[in-house]
Amino acid sequence: MSSPPIPRKTMLLSAVLGVSLIASGCTVANSEYVTGGGAGGLRIVLPEEPPTLEACQSSLTSTGVVIRSNITEPLVERDADTGELGPKLATEWEQTSDETWTFTLREGVTFTDGTPFDAEAAAFTIDRAVNSDLGCEVEGYVFGDTDLDVKVVDDTTLTVTTPEPDPILPLRLSFVEMVSPKTSTTEKVRVPIGTGPYEVADWQAGQRLSLDVNPNYWGDAPGYQSVNYVWRAEGSVRAAMVTNGEADIATSLAPEDGAGELAVAYRNNETTALRIQSDEPPLDDIRIRQAVNSVIDRNTLVQTLFENLATPAGELIPEGVVGYNPDEKIWPYSPSEAKRLVDEARADGVPVDTEIRLIARTGQFPRIAETVEVIQNELEKAGLNVKIQMMDTNTQLTYQIRPFPEDTGPYLLMIMHGNQAGDAAFTLDQYMLSEGYQSSWGTEEFDGMIREAEALKGSERQAAFEKLWPYEQEKIVQYAYIAHMSAILAKSASVSYEPDSATGDEMRLAEMSPVS
Amino acid sequence: MTGFLRRRAFTSLLPLIAVLLGVFFLARLTGDPANLYLPVSATPEQRQQFIEQNGLDDSVWAQMWDYLGGILRLDFGESLRTGESAATMALRAFPATLQLAFSTMLIAVAGAIVIGCWAAYRPNSIADRISSFLSMTAASVPDFWFAIIGVWIFAVGLGWLPTSGVTGGMASWVLPVATLVIRPLGVLTQVVRGAMVSALSAPYVRLARSKGAGDLRVVTHHALRNAAAPALTVAGDLMVGLINGAVVVETIFGWPGIGKLMIDSILGRDFAVLQACVLLTAVSIFVLNILIDIGYALLDARVREKVSA
């Protein structure tokens, strides 16, 4: 019997060992970071890595939450609690004619590449974000098809003119984050050069993103010298990172993620609702739409599935948004009324047995699956034939945004709308106008009421908006509103920070400081 | 040997091409990415411009030829999400997955040999019970459950390990590797145990014993060598599974590997990146299969004779 070929076996084993050790050695050498935070820095864990930090994409949640008011800044900013606009890179603004607003800019501000911030730079940014072919998120979200006429009067004065009078132009411009005039105008950039209290120090794709304080910042120096973002998809891991001392702040948590005493719940501006696609029977019959509204037990959903972190809703915007109706009517829960309405429709020949799809998006909000199951169960009891269909974001969006897919049969679509801008116009245009991008139907009369309200200012605007919500509930019934939601973040005891309704979209680092 | 390798390479190439085309067409069945990348209020013109810019208006066949032509030129397209080259993103993510898979496999193989040999040598011993426990657990408990429970016990409860991450030194490797190792360790231990049981009762082992070889020498020099071949084949398959299936573990632990990149690309309808990831994974599995064959031949004289014939 020959002796075993030891050299060969050893060779094979050494090769595997060697590759593995070399491979792991690269990482071990770099062990100063646990979560990416250096000493004394603030460590934040987000659910996803921003795909880009391009400033004109800042209405994308994952991008905006990192860059807005941290790396870049707008001309004016909205106070999330009061809805009032305050100065940022503009110190004053006024409407100088029906179509024109004049902005006076702050002096002595420079971008982090050394370029001075002046009216030329502001005009450059607005043209780039709104009037270009870049296809910026902010253009579509905030300005629609409107192009702006931007003129430099002198170094610190800028005028912006719209084709039609726009009473909320400064609010719209609060979404345009100023970038250095050296930024490319032909393509989107991954990292912006702004004027904010921080600048990007290092972005290791897939692993972490580090910001350093901007030493030449025009405003007060923020509380942390550096900030490090990492991302973990799993909510319970994000929460555990804070409880375990690996991160200081973790966002987008669910009640069951286990942040314990470190969890902070706060009202965000999201509202959940079912959009009732009203172009096919039986949902084109108002009685069926009323029945859908009657079977949703908003109070119980809020108390049980949402753990009292939400409030029942009767309109699509929450308190704090201009146009919110404080006397909102919550549709009463009445399964017997729902059954009566369905039976009545059936007697009139409405095909109530047609299968209706109840469409929702996986992970849309915590306990989405349980929520739609409860609603489906109630709808079945009322006599409707409902099938749940969970979709991923892209597939669900094809149902949410016009043009809607055709010949799909009737469906109910779970939506969650967040009005980041703080004015009902942004909601009404998209969700309520009969041809709105996310609206299944409406009436000419209602369209007219919306248009009229949107042209008004101040208290008249507020009063006109308030009347639209009860009208929608009585005459249109496109939506079954469910709840105004809350968000949860976990915060280490060593950080002082009060989240507000804008935190989900704009987490201002300058408002965070070490507890002294 | 070269003839064997050439035949083996040819037969592996067909599934490789099938996988690439399969992913290409399946990805396109999942819908148009325009909704994800354009503002909700994008005009039909903006939508059309996006579709044209990204070549999504061509027929699927034209897109396929374009993709295959790109592969030949080593041009894998750009990410819709980040604008970066898809190949760069896939190549950047791949080492993290390989590190994880190799480390896991090394531990699984070493553990399986020790436990498997011990179990086979002493049936119903502690090692035998460990081996059946491991294989039962591996077969019945999903990865994500291990991962989350591991985080809760060892990171949150005991505070011994970081919850996640990749750059935290060896400690950050423990939970991901421990989660991944259970399945291969369970399966391999069973294979080694089974092969060793039959090897230890084979005539040549009895002969070795009768010639006065000690227990350790019998196990390591005689029985294990013959038991190694089936274990190696299974280990190869498990390795393929590890590279492919690190998705859950990478997502939970924020491990920036190819599994996580694939998931992100699927959710983002980022076709170019998804294709680059699949291509890279498929090619490495192809290479790995050939390495396994070579290893198998080196260890087993019967295969060696067959392939050199």
Walk me through what this model shows.
The complex is a heterodimer of chains A (516) and B (309). Chain A is α+β, with helices and mostly antiparallel strands. Chain A is 29% helix and 22% strand. Chain A is built from 14 helices and 19 strands. Chain A has helices at 6-28, 61-67, 119-130, 137-143, 169-173, 235-243, 286-294, 298-303, 335-347, 368-381, 393-400, 424-431, 444-454, 458-476; strands at 42-46, 76-78, 85-87, 90-95, 100-105, 149-154, 157-161, 198-204, 208-213, 226-231, 249-253, 263-276, 311-312, 355-361, 385-391, 411-418, 479-491, 495-496, 513-514. In chain A, strands 1, 8, 9, 10, 11, 12, 13, 14, 15, 16 and 17 form an 11-stranded mixed beta sheet that branches. Chain A has a 4-stranded antiparallel beta sheet with strand order 4-5-7-6, covered by helices on one side. In chain A, strands 2-3 form a two-stranded antiparallel ribbon. In chain A, helix 7 (286-294) packs antiparallel against helix 9 (335-347) and helix 13 packs antiparallel against helix 14. The N and C termini of chain A lie far apart (77 Å). The model of chain A is unreliable at 1-39 (pLDDT under 50). Chain B has 309 residues and is mainly α. Chain B is 79% helix and 0% strand. The longest helix of chain B has 36 residues, at 86-121. Chain B is flat, with a radius of gyration of 24 Å. The interface between A and B is large, with 66 and 64 residues.
- Determine the strand fraction of chain A and express it as a percent band: 15-25%
Q: What's the helix-strand series of chain B?
A: HHHHHHHHHHHHHH
Radius of gyration of chain A: 26 Å
| Principal-axes shape call of chain A | globular
If you average the pLDDT of chain A, what whole number results? 88
Number of helices of chain A: 14
- Any idea what the radius of gyration of chain B is? 24 Å
Q: First CA to last CA of chain A: what distance?
A: 77 Å
Helicity level of chain B, as a percent range?
over 70%
Specify the biggest β-sheet of chain B: none
Rough outline of chain B: flat
Largest interface: A-B, 66 and 64 residues
Helix share of residues of chain A? 25-40%
- Strand-residue proportion of chain B: under 5%
